[in-house]
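Crash report, auto-generated. Payload:
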Amino acid sequence: MNFCIQIDPSDNTAVLLGDAHQGESVTILGKSSQQVVETNESIAYTHKIAIKKIPKGTAVIKYGISIGHATQDINIGDWIHLHNLASDYDERSSTLELHSGLSTDMSYE
Amino acid sequence: MTLPSYSWPGYLRKDGRKGIRNLVLVVYTVECARHVAHLIAQDEPESHIIGFPGCTDNQYAIRLLLALARHPNIGAVLAVGLGCEYTQPAKIAEVVRRSGREAEWFYIQDAGGTSASVERGKEIITRLRLQLENGSQIIPITLPDLVVGAECGGSDATSGLAGNPVVGSFYDLLVDAGGTTIFEEIAEMLGLKSIMLNRAATPEVEVQLADAYDNAEQYCQDVRQYSISPGNFAGGLTAIEEKSMGAFIKGGSKPIQGVIRVSERPTKSGLWLMDSVPDPHYMQFGYTNLNDTEGIMDLISGGAHIILFITGRGSVIGSPIAPLIKITGNVKTYFHMEGDMDFNAGRVLTGEMTLEEAAYDLLELVVRVANGEVTKSESLGHREYFIMYKHQDTPSLIDGCRL
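Recovered output after restart:
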């Protein structure tokens, strides 16, 4: 069985405690009423899964605080990362390669 | 749970400071002297090295060199220069001697080159070590004497879930026992201003925290550099705000007694925040938290006897002067890099122990290391150091904070 941690009851995202494949039911550890979330795609250990719908432009909440805003509509069960969440501070946040986090704006020629 | 009354032998310096190691420090004053300094300290027991690469001198770097050379774990110093540079080894030795420690210095050009300098340096180290071994005053050390610094690096999402919370709980235990704790990385507190301000011990400290936060945020905007890296992203962290929250937890839950700048030290026990962010300056030089080693040097300059380094992804670095304990909240990382990891905080995520139990476990490890147990990075010879050009508005060379 796979688990994810919802740190604060107001969080709309949780952290996976194991690698999850697409369509897997993940048990939510936390204080909210939700029990289970089904993944829409494979999501890696320590990465975030949406446990509430997050409309484009609204805050992604973790630890009970905003960790940035959704750059597109996010559905329950989606992987939340660089492709759909941008920092409100760091303008380089949306320019990075999704899976590795490596920069795409630096020349090596 | 009440703490046992820990006590172990340490070293009383003539300036009144108490150390948990009895080291000779070799300090070089320009990159050109680096190789010679390393050859001098090579194979010499209990002899560590730091140095500054620049030929042009810098007030921040000089303050940092002097703070490190008079650290309580240091008993004696050898300063080595090439002979052309601005930074003066003679003055370093003089300041160190005024603190009651033995100190010597020479220029490589005067000694007659590499081989002659290595020979001369090794003779000096042998003499200094003999003096330390025969002349050091041994005293009992207890938890109220201890200063611990915490830094995270190679963070992933477990750092904010397990690694940093365990350190935070341990920090609370140490502060309750009368000890002193320092954390830093204000550039990793972005987005948390109100949470930070709520932790101020006094209204004056609240003003200090607000100033430090505003300076950090402005700085990050100006240089367009935020303290988040590809490894953090791969580890499940997406935004600096998210990383910040995980990083801030390592400070525990006690009131913050004040903000100290690099090379200043806490004036009383409790939790302190170190600010390493550069101040506005005509040359605009100095990144903040350029790498983990820079932050670790800052914490040691504040007098930390031991460094707790929290790494979810798995870093391998160590530190000179103060032993470094490596903690990971990621069980996969712990077993994958067990030869480098000292403490598995991931056990609180697998349900093997509670946060409180892990904090007590960490306390036991800290006391053992303070009593001489060698950490993984120490045994592997990791003593990375990093001293850079930077500017901070700290006019006085006298130790102490601005309160």
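Post-recovery validation: Chain A has a mean pLDDT of 93.
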